[in-house]
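Run log, item B.
One chain of 170 residues. Sequence copied directly from the ordering sheet:
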Amino acid sequence: LLGSILIDLFSVRKIGVLGGFISGLMILLCAFINDLKLYFLTYGFGFGLGQSFLLASTSSILPHYFKNRLSLANGIMNFVAALICIILPVLTNEFLERYTLKETFYLLAGLNFLTLFMAFTYKSQLKSNNKNKSKWSRVKSSFRIDIFKNNLYKIWCLSSFVLMIGYLIP
């Protein structure tokens, strides 16, 4: 949510670059931290914040490049992300067996700093009608409260809530 609001206020590229910088910096800081509380702060909060900015900007950039096949592009992006979520822990474990934890954090920081440079390539090709609005009205429009005027959406939200009750199996 925060990433999407910041994208509306600034731009997809700026938030993507910020997310890549925060992620890389926090992983790099983990290499020098010995206190577990600070580790949870840098890796848990800081890295998570940077990754949320990256995810929001990556998802938001798709309509700028894919007009006709947006669903396909979104599916491919999520498929590749799922593959990375499977492969990266295995590779990280292999790297950890050969090198130290500090060197592993250097490798992961380098990978995260790559996303910073990739975010520099984002181009905003869509014309935004939010540029003439004040910052406060752009923040308000990010929340999209007007969607609750749609009765079908209200029914969908209620039914999703009811169906999720049975989803959590102990």
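Observations after the first pass:
- The radius of gyration is 19 Å.
- The chain has seven helices and no strands.
Flagged for discussion on Thursday.
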